[in-house]
């Protein structure tokens, strides 16, 4: 590898200088951490049903808010991304010959992600607007 | 990018260039290999369990806004949904805690700090598994009146 006399701007754009797969790896980690942190909270709020309607309804009412609803959209998109990319990883790991088709597999998983993400966004933005008007 | 040799042009980082096996690194054996397998198998199950949960609870009708105590009480009259929710709880927690462990092992250098972070997440995970299991199994809405 050539030694550079000074850092070009591209050196700061990305932590890794490799395959586009590095980006899917970064997003996989970010979405994974976001989802598990939400899950920690979600198990506790759901467990409140065991303490009766007063406790449970008071807490879940906090979700009926347009701002929280946008965060919820982010959660669903994060789970969907993590699912699709995780399936891609699993396919590659269980069928190593697929590494020779990595570009097709990456484009394919991006298409599958978008095919899910677009209707999810449309539906949940509609719900958010309804909440805003209510 | 089809090649006739069925071999990537460059070996994976950290791999012996003479190693001609295809694919990514994976643990050679023992507990780490079982965890590696668990992450993939549970991941495929979670694709169905978590996305199914999200579609039913967040996308159908008015989404999560329709969920209240009565909704849960009616839903959990079905052993199917109780089982679904319990499997989702357990698999998601083990999958997520092991994911956090992978990240900790990647970024936290000092063994003491690793231990503290990992044990903390194991304790949180264990407490949530117990809490969730107790509620899913023992929930009886009739304590607060008739269901429906």
Give the low-pLDDT segments of chain A. Answer: 10-14
Given helix and strand content, the structural type of chain A is: mainly alpha
Shape of chain A: elongated
- Tell me the distance between the termini of chain A: 61 Å
Strand content of chain A: under 5%
Order of helices and strands of chain A: HHHHH
Question: Order of SSEs of chain B, N→C?
Answer: HHHH
Provide structural commentary:
The complex is a heterodimer of chains A (134) and B (148). With 134 residues, chain A is mostly helical. Helices cover 75% and strands 0% of the residues of chain A. Chain A contains five helices and no strands. Chain A has helices at 10-13, 21-47, 53-60, 66-94, 102-133. Chain A is elongated and about 55 Å long. Chain A starts with 9 loop residues before the first helix and ends with a helix. Mean pLDDT of chain A is 88; it is low at 10-14. Chain B is mainly alpha-helical and 148 residues long. Chain B contains four helices and no strands. Chains A and B meet through helix 2, helix 3, helix 4 and helix 5 of A and helix 1, helix 2, helix 3 and helix 4 of B.
List keywords for this structure.
heterodimer; A: 134 residues; mainly alpha; 5 helices; B: 148 residues; 0% strand; elongated; disordered N terminus
Write the topology of this structure.
The complex is a heterodimer of chains A (134) and B (148).
Chain A (H helix, E strand, L loop, with lengths): L9 H4 L7 H27 L5 H8 L5 H29 L7 H32 L1
Chain B lengths: L29 H30 L9 H7 L3 H29 L3 H28 L10
Kindly summarize this structure in a few lines.
The complex is a heterodimer of chains A (134) and B (148). By secondary structure, chain A is mainly α.
């Amino acid at each position: 590898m050539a030694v550079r006399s000074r850092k070009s701007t591209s050196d700061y754009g990305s932590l890794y200088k490799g395959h586009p797969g590095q980006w899917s790896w970064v997003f996989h980690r970010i979405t994974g951490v976001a989802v598990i942190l939400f899950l920690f909270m979600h198990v506790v709020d759901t467990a409140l049903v065991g303490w009766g309607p007063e406790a449970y309804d008071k807490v879940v009412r906090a979700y009926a808010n347009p701002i929280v609803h946008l965060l919820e959209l982010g959660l669903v998109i994060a789970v969907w991304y993590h699912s699709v990319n995780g399936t891609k990883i699993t396919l590659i790991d269980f069928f190593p010959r697929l590494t020779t088709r990595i570009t097709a597999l990456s484009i394919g998983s991006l298409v599958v992600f978008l095919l899910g993400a677009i209707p999810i966004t449309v539906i949940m933005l509609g719900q958010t607007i309804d909440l805003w008007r209510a | 990018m089809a090649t006739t040799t069925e071999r990537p042009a460059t070996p994976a980082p950290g791999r012996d260039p003479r190693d001609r096996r295809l694919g990514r690194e994976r643990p050679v054996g023992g507990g780490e290999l079982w965890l590696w397998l668990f992450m993939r198998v549970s991941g495929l199950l979670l694709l169905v369990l978590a996305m199914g949960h999200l579609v039913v609870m967040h996308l159908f009708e008015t989404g999560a806004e329709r969920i209240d105590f009565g909704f849960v009480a009616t839903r959990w009259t079905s052993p199917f949904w109780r089982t679904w929710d319990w499997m989702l709880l357990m698999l998601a927690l083990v999958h997520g805690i092991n994911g956090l462990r992978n990240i900790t092992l990647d970024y936290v250098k000092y063994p003491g700090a690793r231990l503290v972070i990992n044990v903390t997440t194991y304790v949180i995970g264990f407490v949530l598994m117990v809490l969730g299991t107790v509620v899913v199994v023992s929930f009886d809405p009739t304590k607060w009146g008739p269901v429906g």
